[in-house]
Amino acid sequence: MDYRLHDASTVGETLGGLKRNVKRAIRVLIDGDFQARRQAEIFLNIHGGALSKASKETIERFVKARGSMARRVRYALSMEVRRLRRWETDMLRLLVVLGRY
Description:
The protein has five helices and no strands. It is an all-alpha fold. α4 packs antiparallel against α5. The longest helix is centred in the N-terminal third of the chain and has 17 residues. The two termini are 23 Å apart. The mean pLDDT is 81.
């Protein structure tokens, strides 16, 4: 699903929300784990049977990307998982490479 945030949006990210997300990203990089991999793993366990083969394989690759630095870098460069905004996807790629996703 594509979504565009624009000046006339009545719902969506505000500057305050952007600041909050940047602070959160910095905190994740410094302090801890983002938990996206764990959430994907739980989702796969609960709903894996209802997913298409392609969707299930995409989530499985995301979950299994954790490992050596080389494996994480390879996955990050070809990652199919996307966030709403480009910078969020890039941040997720960085977290994958660092093993903190």
